[in-house]
């Protein structure tokens, strides 16, 4: 059987806009003679030369889809980077503008002379008790 005698029927279908597209034979008149198979999905059908073909578009369409995805991911990465830098700057400003002095608890941390003397006296007593 020669390839020119092979043909396939694509049945009628409703496209994405719900418009009825009437059935047709592959290869189509004026089309590629090698496109003898009916390919596609329920809402788009076309003649192709590979029965396992899924998309009626050339590879350049997929390339543009990839470029669009890369542009979108690049924009998302820049926004995420700007967010992280903003958080870091705000944290630095929060930490650097904190008051350096500690809060006054109402207790004096300086030792007075009488306290020092009494502590020295206690140390002397303890030294005498524990000396051998």
UniProtKB/TrEMBL annotation:
InterPro entries: Shisa, Shisa_N. Pfam families: Shisa_N. Residues 9-53 form the Shisa N-terminal domain. Keywords: Membrane, Transmembrane, Transmembrane helix. One of its GO terms (cellular component) is membrane. Its main location: membrane. The chain crosses the membrane at residues 62-95. It is found in: Membrane. This is Shisa like 2A. It comes from Catharus ustulatus (Russet-backed thrush).
